[in-house]
């Protein structure tokens, strides 16, 4: 049996690196229009996952040690992914997640995001963690708040084929190390 490197574990989740053999998991996740509603608005074609998405995920592991997109599983198997990505500031990372609909409403998004924030500050020495979503994505905004991120601003991005709700903008949430430590030890 192949040994899988565990990146991070929480009470209910195990995060590991994706491998070239995991394309099917990403196809399953990205084939749900509701999962993709606030991202692209449509399922991601399998060929795009195999030729662009998965190679891009694997490239981040090589170029940014400790960062990347990690397959998340609970006791029943694959539930989605959590990501901690590089930003323009080498002292900051962006966090995010994408979960199967069957995993929604179980607190996994908050649990995994909190674990990534802790990892960023305690293990990776980051000074800032941020996340963004569409302003109309109220469920993800609630996850950001529960995970300890704080609303920072609304911003607008021009898209060639905007999704419904794009006109309300994107929102940025963040937390810095000092604030996170104060809340954690407060």
Considering the chains and any ligands shown, give keywords for the structure.
single chain; alpha+beta; 5 helices; eight-stranded mixed beta sheet; 186 residues
What does this structure look like?
The protein is α+β, with helices and mostly antiparallel strands and 186 residues long. It has one domain (6-185): Gcn5-related N-acetyltransferase (GNAT) (Aminopeptidase). It contains five helices and eight strands. It has an eight-stranded mixed sheet, sandwiched between helices. A hairpin with a 5-residue loop joins strand 4 and strand 5. Helix 1 (23-30) crosses helix 2 and helix 3 (108-122) packs across helix 4.
Quick structural overview:
The chain is α+β, with helices and mostly antiparallel strands. It has helices at 23-30, 46-63, 108-122, 138-146, 177-185; strands at residues 6-9, 14-17, 68-74, 77-86, 92-99, 128-134, 150-155, 170-176.
Write the topology of this structure.
Blueprint: E1 6-9, E2 14-17, H1 23-30, H2 46-63, E3 68-74, E4 77-86, E5 92-99, H3 108-122, E6 128-134, H4 138-146, E7 150-155, E8 170-176, H5 177-185
> What is the top-level CATH class?
Alpha Beta
- The CATH architecture classification is 3-Layer(aba) Sandwich
* Rounded Rg: 16 Å
The strand count comes to 8
**Broad shape:** globular
Q: What count of domains describes the coordinates?
A: 1
User: Which fold name corresponds to the CATH topology?
Assistant: Aminopeptidase
Can you identify the CATH superfamily? Gcn5-related N-acetyltransferase (GNAT)
Q: H/E element string?
A: EEHHEEEHEHEEH
Mean pLDDT: 92
The main pleated sheet reads as: 8 strands, mixed
In percent terms, what proportion of residues is strand?
25-35%
The main sheet orders its strands as 1-2-3-4-5-6-8-7
| Helix count from the secondary structure assignment | 5
């Amino acid at each position: 049996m192949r040994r899988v490197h565990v990146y991070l574990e929480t009470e209910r989740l195990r995060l590991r690196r994706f491998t070239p053999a995991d394309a099917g998991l990403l196809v399953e996740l990205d084939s749900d229009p509701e999962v993709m509603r606030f991202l692209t608005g449509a399922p991601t074609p399998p060929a795009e996952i195999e030729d662009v998405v998965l190679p891009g995920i694997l490239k981040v592991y090589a170029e940014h040690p400790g960062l990347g997109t990690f397959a998340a599983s609970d006791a029943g198997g694959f539930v989605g992914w959590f990501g901690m990505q590089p930003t323009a500031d080498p002292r900051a990372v962006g966090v995010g997640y994408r979960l199967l609909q069957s995993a929604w409403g179980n607190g996994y998004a908050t649990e995994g995001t909190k674990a990534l924030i802790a990892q960023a500050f305690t293990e990776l020495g980051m000074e800032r963690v941020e996340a963004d979503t569409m302003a109309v994505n109220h469920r993800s905004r609630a996850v950001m708040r529960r995970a300890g991120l704080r609303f920072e601003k609304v911003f607008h991005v021009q898209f060639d084929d905007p999704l419904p709700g794009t006109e309300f903008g994107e929102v940025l949430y963040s937390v810095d190390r000092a604030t996170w430590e104060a809340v954690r030890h407060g």
